[in-house]
Amino acid sequence: MRPRRTAARTGASAGAWAIVVLAGLLVPPLLLRDRLPDPVATHWGPGGRPDDAMGFVTSVAGLAAIWIGICALLFATAAAQRRRTGRLHGWYAAILGFVGGMAVSAQGVTVYANLDRASWEDARHLEPVLVGPVFLAAVGLGALGWWIDRAGFPSAAEQRRLPGVDLRPGERPVWVSRVTNGWLAGGGAAGLAVAAVLAWFTPPSAAVAAAVGAAVVAISTVRVIVDERGLRLGVGLWGWPARLIPLRKIRAAWVEDRPATAYGGWGYRGLPGKATLMVRSGPCLVVEYLGGGQFAVSVDDAERGAGLLNALRERAPTRSR
Q1: pLDDT tens across 81-102, in order?
Q2: Radius of gyration from C-alpha coordinates of the chain
Q3: According to DSSP H, which parts of 47-152 are helical?
Q4: CATH code where residue 283 lies
Q5: H-helix or E-strand containing 179?
Q6: Total tally of structural domains belonging to the chain
Q7: Long-range contacts of range 54-58, CB-CB < 8 Å, 24 or more positions apart?
Q8: How far apart are CA 57 and CA 116, in angstroms?
Q9: 117-134 CB burial, b ≥16 within 10 A, e <16
Q10: Strand, coil or helix: what is 270?
Q11: Domain containing 214: what range?
């Protein structure tokens, strides 16, 4: 297996790409300054005719400043994530690739359309068909950034000390944990009580209050089970809806201390592949999928559950790698 690069080099690679894009935005128009009008055409209407312009310096400096601002925002967000999780996510590389590709392509088209024209009104017409290739090129660069990150850098599991437990041959252990957020449960119960009162006066409002109260009660309790099948989660007092993450799809498990405020509060937070079921702040059981992505759930005694998942995964007769 080829050696994987450290996560620290992700930032260096992203920084190099940012400089390359910045050069692509500045060098061509500056080298061709004497062959471009001032102002330059910067916008074309549906028929492909130029319909708006901007001063040369404003146009070049403005696009460069936007790119620098986007990079600064992404780098700051990525640095915060790395401090919290120890790695950088592939989405940063994908966004840098896509936005950088769009910016350089737009600058190249603008220079081409204005080159050797007496005024911006005489700029070359741009057919809408050009939008497709430009967009596809940017998507390709974004996909390349994502692939480079996924192929060249260690996963979160490979950068952590993973908990484990000792299992005897033939042993079939089960770990069960349950956590309830009293504030959520109390708030949901209060909503149901309000609904009962409103039912005598305004049934439609009572229905809304009942639905909200029931939803809050439903996310106030989480029951987590780890066994040979994998990780099972049941939400609410009756453990429904339920979800099973099969053992064969799990690469590894560990524990992270996650504050609810950093993930947008209580409830289901994030998107599929990078989600957290947050019932309360504190230790969360985190699993990494074999295909990439993570799922986390706040639960008591999370380290024992993560250790059992890792032990069962190691003992599984077949493993996907």
Answers
A1: 666 655 556 677 778 888 888 8
A2: 27
A3: 56-85, 90-114, 131-152
A4: 2.30.29
A5: strand 175-180
A6: 3
A7: 56/29
A8: 17
A9: beebeebbebeeeeeeeb
A10: strand
A11: 182-219
The encoded tokens of residue 188 equal: 């949901």
User: Mean pLDDT in each 10-residue stretch from start to end of the chain (321 residues)?
Assistant: 46 78 92 92 85 91 91 82 60 80 88 91 82 77 68 54 80 89 79 80 81 78 92 81 89 89 78 81 90 87 92 72 42
Alpha carbon 259 to its chain's center = 18
CA atoms within 13 A on the CB side of 54: 12
Task: Please indicate, yes or no, whether residues 291 and 190 belong to a single structural domain of this protein.
Answer: no
And the tokens for 86? Answer: 């120890």
Q: How far apart are CA 60 and CA 66, in angstroms?
A: 10
Map tokens 């190249």 to a residue.
Answer: 108
d(Cα 75, Cα 69) in Å, to the nearest integer? 10
How confident is the model over 240-273, as pLDDT tens digits?
778 899 999 998 999 988 888 877 787 788 776 7
Q: How many CB atoms lie within 10 A of CB 10?
A: 22
φ, ψ dihedrals at 65, nearest 5°: -65, -40
Q: Do 198 and 301 belong together in one domain?
A: no
Give the angle subtended at the CA of 52 by the CAs of 46 and 55, to the nearest 5°: 150
